[in-house]
Amino acid sequence: MSSLLLNKISILNYKNILDKTFNFDSKINCFIGNNGVGKTNILDSIYHLAIGKSSFSISNENNINHDSEFMLLDGVFLINEKKENITCSLKRNETKVLKRNEKVYKKLSNHFGLIPVVLISPYDTNLIIEGSFERRKFMDSIISTYNKTYLQNIITHGKLIKQRNKILKYFNKSTKVDMDSILIYDDQIIKLSKPIHECRKKFINEFMPIVIDKYNKISGKNEKVSLSYKSDLNDNEIADLLKNSFQKDMILQFTSCGIHKDDLIFKISNSSIKRFGSQGQQKSFLISLRFAEFEFLKNNNNISPILLMDDIFDKLDIERVKNIVDLVNSSEFGQLFISDTDKIRIEKVLSSLKNSSKIFEI
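User: That's the sequence. What structure does it adopt?
Assistant: Structure tokens below.
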């Protein structure tokens, strides 16, 4: 098993963090403080360096403190005891610069997968309450971490769909649609769709039992959960779908079928977890997804990801908190970062964990 460790991070003008430097424990690090003081942004800065982008900011400039003109993140990682210095900098109205050991990445995708990380946060509720895009992104991010061909296929497929939609958008009754271009894009979309679909099917078949196992351990095996893969390609060929939906696509002015419409279906007791799951059940399910992601990445990358847990104990009963702590203890995790508002609760959690730790009061 390979080793991964974040030794140190320096944060400058990142969101509400003006200037902070942290030297970390090799196992458990806790950030304690009231809401709004920057605990989540510290975890997000770690995620940003590992993945190359923020976990929740859509616009890069939203990551710069509103009173500043630039931001800088500088992290010192150890991968198999080899030092890796990752820096990310951004000036207003300029392109973000990501570097590995002073060398600038030409493409962000080249960095993806170097530093596996799993973030459990309140924003995970989007996986349940938002549309299918969030669930596809969750699935794609995991597969792309260990399958670079899949990552490139997803990127290329997304560009092809955008170009096809652009042609459809400009079509109207007085303008002849450019069928030659449509067929060219269809041919490329067809070639990419099957391998993407097969990768997703394989992933879900392997991932689902892990999620169920984690949920059972968190909930105490009192509830039955499931997840399934919904895709137009489960029962149809993509070539037939594109051909049969073409008239509809011209009216809608976008591509209405294909793997870009795939979804994950989450259920509890055979009913939608979004509609029938309690707040505690939904949170337990989301935490189970993330712990399953952790185990899946560890097994496929032969390295324990950095685990970030942002305020995950809130709104959970004592029994579920205890079960999560037991799960962490038994998961052979690498380095763990936790944020919480309750110092007493964290001290109780730490007393149950079997590793060295450090508390930072923010």
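The first helix runs from residue 39 to 51.
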